[in-house]
Design brief:
This protein is an alpha+beta fold. The chain has a domain of 138 residues. It contains 9 helices and 11 strands. A 7-stranded antiparallel beta sheet has the order 6-5-4-3-2-1-9, with helices on both faces. A two-stranded antiparallel ribbon has the order 7-8. Strands 10-11 form a two-stranded antiparallel ribbon. α4 runs antiparallel to α5.
Length: 411
């Protein structure tokens, strides 16, 4: 394949890098990291099964090709589909408001699809090494394979991924005197107010009077973005009048799925960064504690930009995502949505169940647990966590105790 293909790639600069975004890089060939060794992420495991003949990918008799079978093998629901039309991928000539790029994801894997594209794009999360990137030739083959693409790290390892191979979601902002050139595209996650998110994305769902940058087809190119969005771009529940949605596996770009992806992206990068720092053993105690404080603040949603009105999605994602559990005896799950004043009902990220979290070095994970206990038990009542009510802290603590395996005995 002639061109490099990147998933979630964006031309972007942070508006004032800070904390972990401003930290040093860790060499991929560091003996404690060995990133270029064989990965055990779900994509790598599937490729191994394809090679041995233990797995098979059916080819759909449509433009989707291997996409439906690939999603099924990787355990990704179609209702996770989000659509981005900004020209922030190497396949820019094939991406437009009429032919957006589709992204499907679960906790560990993401798959990118472009109509008539040169490749399917994939990312997989290894429990220790972090994010790996892959492409797959979309043409029908007797032996389809998933090829690792370390060259994609030109975009996927930088300040916005905390200096480790990671993921990112960007938002194109309207052109103003204050935002010009490359600075018109920004990384977004739960810390960014709704008003600054989703430029260059389709967003199906309602936000009430809360404004956002989604569905504005003028915001296509991050180098020369268009003007601000109008009222017609808000509370959009169907995209059928904009482009042919039958060309995609789902007709939606669900707002709840997009918000979940934003949370998960930075959460993944934080877990991997701290794991790498602990492995190389070059961080002093104060610095490591500072990094863990950032992780705990994020995973308890203490730094989440609040919703000022309820948010409602239009796909089944709001229903199927919480069904993945686990749940305590009262039926509560860390995957339960709130969508009134915040994204999730309970103040603790479901990514605590991930293999990546469990794959952190024991010493680092122990420090995370101790900080979490201080916050959820109410011992830490500092300003950072002031927005967490006593009832919510207690609920999250109870759910964690009932559902998390290998929790320290003292917890």
């Amino acid at each position: 394949m002639r061109r490099r293909v990147f998933l979630f790639c964006a031309v972007a600069l942070l508006a004032g890098a800070q904390a972990l975004e401003d930290t040093f890089y860790i060499p991929l060939d560091d003996p404690a990291i060995q990133y270029k060794s064989a990965s055990k992420d779900p994509v790598a495991l599937l490729d191994s099964q394809l090679e041995s003949g233990k797995a098979k990918l059916d080819y759909a008799p449509s433009a989707w090709g291997y996409l439906p079978a690939l999603l099924k093998q990787l355990g990704i629901n179609i209702d996770s589909q989000v659509l981005v039309f900004s020209k922030t991928s190497i396949q820019t000539e094939r991406i437009s408001p009429r032919t957006p790029r589709a992204i499907y994801f679960n906790d560990e894997v993401a798959v990118g699809y472009v109509q008539n594209g040169e490749a399917l794009e994939l990312t997989g999360l290894d429990p220790q090494h972090g994010v790996y990137l892959y492409t797959m030739d979309p043409a029908k083959s007797d032996k389809p394979r998933l090829g690792r693409r370390d060259d994609c790290l030109r975009c996927h390892q930088g300040p916005v991924t905390l200096g480790v191979p990671g993921l990112m979601v960007s938002s194109i902002h309207p052109q103003t005197e204050a935002r010009e050139g490359h600075g018109s595209s920004f990384m977004t996650d739960q810390r960014v107010p709704i008003s600054g998110r989703w430029g260059g994305w389709y967003v199906t769902g309602t936000t009430g009077m809360q404004r956002h940058l989604g569905n504005n087809i003028a915001l296509v190119d991050p180098i020369h973005p268009g003007g601000p969005a109008g009222d017609g771009t808000l509370n959009v529940t169907s995209l059928a009048s904009i482009f042919d949605t039958s060309k995609y596996l789902a007709p939606t770009s669900d707002i709840v799925a997009l918000m979940t992806l934003e949370h998960q992206t930075r959460m993944t990068n934080l877990i991997i960064r701290i794991g790498w720092d602990a492995r190389i053993g070059k961080m002093d105690e104060a610095t490591m504690n500072s990094e863990i404080d950032q992780l705990v603040a994020y995973m308890t949603y203490a730094d989440e930009a609040p919703l000022t009105e309820p948010v409602t999605g239009v796909s089944t994602f709001t229903k199927t995502f919480p069904q993945r559990g686990p749940r305590d005896k009262q039926g509560r799950s860390l995957r339960d949505f709130d969508l009134r004043t915040r994204l999730f009902r309970y103040p603790l990220s479901y990514m605590i169940y991930s293999a990546a979290f469990d794959g952190m070095p024991d010493a680092a994970r122990e420090l995370v647990y101790r900080r979490l206990y201080d916050v959820l038990s109410g011992k830490d009542r500092s300003k950072t966590f002031a927005r967490l009510s006593a009832a919510d802290r207690q609920a999250a603590l109870e759910i964690l105790r009932a559902t998390k395996s290998k929790l320290p005995a003292w917890f």
